[in-house]
Amino acid sequence: MTDQPSPSSQSFLTALRTLRQSRRFHDRAIPREDLHEILEVARWTGSSKNTQPWHLVVVEDRAVNAELAGYGAFTGFLDGVAASIVITLDHDGRSQAYDEGRISERIMLAAAELGIGSGTAWFSSTEARQRVRDLLGIPGDRHPWSAVGLGYTDTTRSQAAPSSGRKPLAEIVSWGHYQA
Ligand SMILES: Cc1cc2nc3c(=O)[nH]c(=O)nc-3n(C[C@H](O)[C@H](O)[C@H](O)COP(=O)(O)O)c2cc1C
């Protein structure tokens, strides 16, 4: 007899498969206890050699998030989030970039479990990152590459993705050896 996946593991897999970026939110604030829950999950993210290169700045002030919205080509949706978590890293290398991706995804998944939508916002230029530092008092030797915006997704409004859907597995996976 083959083991069947349990209903709870099925719903976890479905949650992983259906997680999408949110960009439009209701005005409702996120309870502090939920933000703490998300941060507690984030804290346990694995990192290269367990260096935990991050320091997270939680921004609940809507005016400050509206200001952050102006600091990137695609960061506009931060004007309207209930909170954002700005991820700052202690170095600017490949392993920190990897670690940043992991902690972002954990934040997004924990938020989703609490019914909270989320989206990555990328502070893409050196100037933008300096403005983020200046606004939030982040030391010059830390790198604020991105933030995760959080809120209750307004499903009546378009989430305006640049593209949607995914490539089929056959296009992105080979078995045994690489086949284009
Ligand atoms: C490194 C990275 C940077 C991103 N930067 C932004 C951004 O600045 N603004 C934005 O709206 N979405 C940003 N996204 C989200 C992507 O646009 C999104 O994951 C992709 O379009 C797939 O969307 P979906 O998951 O909703 O299907 C970023 C994602 C990644 C991984």
Automatic annotation (TrEMBL):
Which segments constitute the Nitroreductase domain? 21-69
Q: Which Gene3D superfamilies match?
A: NADH Oxidase
The keyword Oxidoreductase appears for this protein: yes
Question: Does the keyword section mention Flavoprotein?
Answer: yes
Keyword list, A-Z: Flavoprotein, FMN, Oxidoreductase
Q: Which InterPro entries match?
A: Nitroreductase, Nitroreductase-like, Nitroreductase/BluB
Cleaved signal peptide residues: none
Protein name as it appears in the record: Nitroreductase family protein
